User: What shape does this take?
Amino acid sequence: MNEQCMLLKKIKKYDFSLKELDLYLDTHPDCRRALEMFNRYMVLRNKCVQEYTERFGPITPEQNNSSEHWKWIDDPWPWERR
Amino acid sequence: MWQYEKKLQYPVNIKTPNAKLAKVIISQLGGPDGELSASLRYLNQRYAMPYGEVKGLLTDIGTEELAHVEMISAILYQLTKNLSIDEIKASGFDTYFVDHTTGIYPIAASGAPFTAAYFQSKGDIITDLHENMASEQKARTTYDNILRLADDPDVRDPIRFLREREIVHFQRFGEALRLTQDRLDAKNFYACNPSFDKNCGKMI
Assistant: This one.
């Protein structure tokens, strides 16, 4: 597995943890333990996303960082086998 | 994957409820040329697209259409808020009310429930882009008709925004079709499907 795939896998893991905490917090909005975990994972996630987008291009259009080419449209797309 | 943003794409602030108007505007939620069918059409078509530009465009417009579903739903919500039973009876909204109260449910103005039969995903970029251009024009006509029926400026303003978006999407789909045709083999007179016909344009 190359570095790009590994970094993306890491982001997906953080995203899934954050999604689970998001759903849990929807019904437990004052749980301090869950809030603390959410904030901690969010910091780790953002660091990974920043590294990923700087090196491999955007995950959302808003993360564009080029003034020469709109990398958003570049292949491969998530449904394509790599 | 998708992420939700807790805001409308364009503001909806309707001061006067109007159930009669809700009865026609609901067609842009669950009707044949509505926003829900638009979103599902584009998001489903993406997989047959051979070019990054078109995969990106369908993803981005399909996503924007979901924001339009939310805007239409907000208009319906505000138009049907705090209605009295007398108003519900007088406006003809009672036929919807009996099944859904004032909940938001995707149907056409005629009452027909939403169906995937409203759109196509043909697995052919040329066919699909033509369908999309037609569907944007059909939605634009529907918004024109809504503007003919609605007097309230609070309703007309977001509807005019949505009408304008149909025109922009039509333009972008037209450009996507042009760049697709530019890339096809010059001998492909009959525009065979580039994502399926491996010998596109050549006799075997």
In short: Chain B has a mean pLDDT of 94. Chain B has eight helices and no strands. The CA atoms of residues 22 and 76 of chain B lie 5 Å apart. The interface with chain A takes residues 1, 3, 46-47, 52-53, 55-56, 59-60 of chain B (CB under 8 Å).
